[in-house]
Amino acid sequence: MPKKHKNHFANIWYFFYNFETILRNYERLINSQNILLKKYALINNKLKNTNQIKEMMLEVSNSIIEIDNTEKFFNLILEKLIDIVDDGHKGSFLVLNKDNYLEYKASIGFNINDLKKIKIKLEETFLWKKSPQNISKPCIIDDIRSFNSNSLNKKSFNALDDIEALNIKTTLSTPVIIDDKLYGMINIDSLRKNAFNEDDLLIAEYFSNQISIAIKNHQLIEKILYLSRYDSLTNTYNRCYFEEIVKNVYRKAIRYNEMFSIVMFDLNNLKNTNDTFGHVVGDMVISRFSEVIKDNIRESDLFARYGGDEFIAIFFNSNPTDIENRLSNIVNYCNYHPLKVEGKDVYVSFSYGISHFPEESEDIDFLIKLADKRMYKYKKEFKAKYNNLDF
Asked: What does the radius of gyration of the chain's CA atoms come to, in whole angstroms?
């Protein structure tokens, strides 16, 4: 037999003899490729989720300046997280208060007004029960009703049950840590059993870290906005922000033919109080005056600190007689409720002047000056009545 035929038959024999081995190696190759394909699919999904989270966080970050209401901001966070987590149907955002209770601040799929009536002890929460010594990682809880039945006090359990907040199957609970302290928790709820997995835990953990930064930035923006609008001592509008609001008040009054009254206030004898007791007590007098006024005006009325011891208010839809009676009652209240300082009575006394829109003018600046002029007339008469004390 020629040599080339011998080699040919040798190759055929070798093929059949090793056929089983070749098949096993081929199967291993196919399995290996399948594993790689699955791995690449998982990587692509994770990359897709990561991109979604980045886009979502960009939207949340952009809204920090636009949304000045904290609870609206929390609601936006919930909406975005429910969108990104598969099988997430409902959710709630809870914030830890100084008494170590979690309070509901926002929710999706539940009535937030009902939830706000319920407070949960930290020790009763999902995260605490899962890892009491280290509430820093998200966790998954299955069979919610059974879990809560064993964890919550009876009152809280019944309250949640009454509003159908326990009609869920699985919860993904995520801590929100700010400056190394527990700030609150985000719960994403599913109506399906065993809805969440390890990938969801990773997403929740990443999301939580990003949200902590966003919330801290939102708090900073809120503080800046507060300082730009409010007087820190009295928690009333400051002059600059009040003047912005008055522009809208004026336009609305002209458009709808509304009336309002402007009242200028000035504290009496504050210099004497500062000289006698110090500026700390003077600040106490200013604060008490502000509290009394705010307690005796309607929510629709406006009140602001206009200067050092000067304040301004706008009373809507009240006739002059009604306003005079209200202010007279406030004067009487202050006369009978002095501050107690070092065993002495320190009275909160003030003068005021009123002007009326549009009866006396439609010029806001003129009305403020008119109210101020009348206030100083009141002060002069009051000063003369009380023997020329240093007012």
From this structure: 35
